[in-house]
Amino acid sequence: MAEVNMLKIKFDLRDILNVPFIYDSYQEIVGGNLIRRKFVVDYVRAKPGDTVVDIGCGPAQLLRWLPEMNYIGFDTNTKYIDLAQKAYGHRGLFLVGDTKKLETDGRLLNADIVICCTMLHHLDDAQVLHVMRFAHKILKPGGRLVCCEPCLAPDHGVFRDWMMSLDRGLYIRSEEGYRKLVTQAFPNISTAFDPKPVRLSARCLNIECVK
Hints:
alpha/beta; 8 strands; 7 helices
């Protein structure tokens, strides 16, 4: 009975986190938004005027820390896109869809930077490979793909492992697991962990690739 109750709690928490306001509040508490800001500053490194494509943009949280640019974000969650449009419609273009639906959309071509922030761990291996090849296709030569993903790490500890188990993403991988997938599209790749986890958040792996 206890096992059934725990499964119900996990299921309910994941359902609740589908509500954009609750999800953003949860991210603020556990330190997810601090991680996003650090990711934008240290790894995205966008410059004014860049063309940036944000895959799985959610409610476009990253725009809080990005400069003025040609920003295009897309997500399959219409609620997130509606929120992004209301908050940042003056700063970018927001589309509903995924990399398969938008594969031939010419507006996404010649990007300076493609972002995948805490999105790949929601996808199985075949889906990740499609995203990687899509990102490679739309980047201009010399453009960069940058990713930030929760990652299995030996120094997590019991509590952080439990926090990761509540994540809606079912495909949290090891560093080696992410590298094996990403390098099939981007041979030029570097990875780095943040020096220490933020608040209650999981250890995140930062990935940077150059076309």
